[in-house]
Amino acid sequence: MKTIDTLKVKNLKERLLIERENILHAVEKQMHCSDDPKQLALANRLNEVDDWALASLQSDIDIAILGHELTGLRDIDAALKRIAKGVYGICDECGKQIDMKRLNAQPSARLCLGCKEAFEKRRGIVSRPT
Q: How many other CB atoms are found less than 10 A from the CB of residue 119?
């Protein structure tokens, strides 16, 4: 089986680390919407809009964004662990090498394109025209 060359893995690792820092910064910024980190986001939103329903909706959106960011962070950390173990770029499902184009597009990918498409099809995420 052909493995990814060390320089490419190093470059992808650097991209993952940069993205990790960006996500951490975004999460920190989201969590501390003001200079006083002790204030709750809902209180900040209420002060901004003076409407409980809108403030609550905006806080729900903030929570959804944080959930998305934390999922991305988890995926990056898992990819960094795979690099450390020397198994980066190997599909978790079929064990084949993940195409370099896919890794360049999604450095935290854990599935090859074929297995990812099969996963999405099983979950009903992707629907093909009949």
A: 13
